[in-house]
Every structure is written in structure tokens, then in C-alpha cells.
Amino acid sequence: MNAYALKLRSLRAVAIGANRLARRCHQASWNARWQRHNAAYRGALNDLFIVGYPKSGLTWMSALVFQLCTGEALEGLTHIGTRVHFIESKLSSLEPSGSIDDIAGTRLFKTHLHYRNTPKGPGKYIYVVRHGLDVAVSYFHQHRRDPTFRASIDEFATAFIKGGVDPGDWFEHLYTWVDNRSSLRLLVVSYESLLADPATELGRISRFCETDIDRERCDEICANTTLSALRAIESKLDPFAEMRLSGTGQFFRRGTCGQWRTSIGGDVRDMFRRKAERYSTKMKWDSASTFDTTP
After folding, report:
1. What is the pLDDT of residue 18?
2. For residue 239, is pLDDT > 80?
3. Domain ranges (residues) in the chain
């Protein structure tokens, strides 16, 4: 290797190190901010948090839960974020002494926060989990809405498995939530089960939320939250619109399971499988379908 190549490699290593340091400092600053707000949060019994890693189905779950808990229609919303509050966005706009306790009325929240950073109180928490590689595929396509994004899907999935994609390690996010060390009132719902039998899963969610609905209302809510129905009102649901971010393409893309089988290369799938095997031994939850890498 010549001197120029050595110098280039050295400069690249310095740049990568500086980026990692900046990311750690940024994350430490945000962690401190979450902890201050969490200390101020007291909560209420009817607070409901919808939680999960990005692209796990939280917007879909928000649409279901909003109708279930309020009895209102999605069509009447300007944007669902005005009623199902995205905590990361909400806390960013609060004063240092403020709290999400200041929000009045029925409080429904959505968040991608890690377990340690999520406000904890007497309310209920619904954790939505989706197969990790399907999350990676969907999240990759969301990143492609940014015209400056350049990574290939295998490059992105590799970074995802290594915990190098915001909001951090998917495995650790899942593990800490299902471990639930603070003994929160928690319901875990899988994306795959919700897709396979939405009426049954909505029944579970209804019982957990202590909200009675009859079969007619259940069928109505399910019909209002099919992929085609959600696409018809996408502007009311798309987080990009809520946060005034620019982007191209649809927010609701496929809404299916198993896309990773034809999208992600074998070496990357093997990397996921090896990490999944380490986590499955300590998981207090049946993770077989979520970690499955059968071709």
C-alpha cells in the first residue's frame, strides 16, 4: 500500500471516529433530557403508550387505538399526531421544566424510545414487535425517501443489525421492553399476528385497554385500518407530514411479512441469525417467529 493510500485510510479512520464520538455525545445529551422529563412525569391510569422500533407498525396501531379509545373517526383528524402524541417531537418542544403531564384530555402517546428513556407511570403500554429483518427492509425504504441517502439495502441492514441505525440496537430495544424490569402494565403485540387476524388482536387490545366493543364496531375499526384505507388518508398519518420533513414516496409501502427473504443477502441474514441466537437464550418472550431466518 502506497503512502497516499495509507494517509487516506488514516483520514477516513479519524473521520469515522469523530462521527462516532459526536453521535455518543448527542445521544448522551438526549438521554439526559429524557431522564429530566421522566423524573417530572407522574402520569394517569388512563395514559396509553404505543411503543416500538421504527417501522414496526406503530402508525397502524395508533390508528387502531385512536378509534378504539376515543370512538372518533380517522377522517375527522387534521393529523393523527394531534391526538396520538409523538413523544420525541413533543418533548423536543417542551421547556426544560415542562412535562407531558401538561397535556390535557385523553392522553395517547407514541414513541420509539428505548425502555430506559420512556416515561414510566401507572398507565398502559402496548409494545409492537415486527420481524427484525422486515423492520430493516421497511426502514431502508423509509430512508430512501431522503434523496441524499445512498446506502444499499445490505449495507443498511448490516448497520441495523450492528445497532448503527437510530434509535439504536433493535435487539436491545426489543429485549429491554419485553424484559420490563419496571413491571409496567404491558401488552406485546406482534405485527405478524395483527396482519394475520386483526379482529382477534383488536379484541386483545380492547380487553387490555378495558374498552368494550361489539363485533360490529370491531369490524368497522378493522375495515378503517386496512392498507388501502390508510393509504387513502396517508397525509393524516405520515410522520413526515407531522414533523414537516421533506421526502418522496409513500409512507405505507407494502404492509406484508417476509420481504427480507427476497431483499436481503444470505451473509447479512446469517449475521442476523447469529445475533438472534444470543438474544433468544435470555428473552422472556417467545421470539421464534420474530427471529426466524428460514429461507
Report:
1. 45
2. no
3. 47-291
pTM of the model: 0.85
CATH number of 47-291, picked from 3.30.565.10, 3.40.50.620, 3.40.50.300, 3.30.420.130: 3.40.50.300
Higher pLDDT, 151 or 24: 151
pLDDT tens column, 164-187: 999 999 999 999 999 999 999 999
Report DSSP letters for the chain, one per residue. Answer: --HHHHHHHHHHHHHHHHHHHHHHHHHHHHHHHHHHHHHH----TT-EEEE-STTSSHHHHHHHHHHHHH---GGG-S-GGGTEEEHHHHHHHS-TT--GGG--SS-EEEE---GGGS---SSEEEEEE--HHHHHHHHHHHHTTSTT----HHHHHHHHHTT-STT--HHHHHHHHHH-TT--EEEEEEHHHHHH-HHHHHHHHHHHTT----HHHHHHHHHHTSHHHHHHTGGGT-HHHHTT----S-SS----S-THHHHS-HHHHHHHHHHHHHHHTT-SS--HHHH----
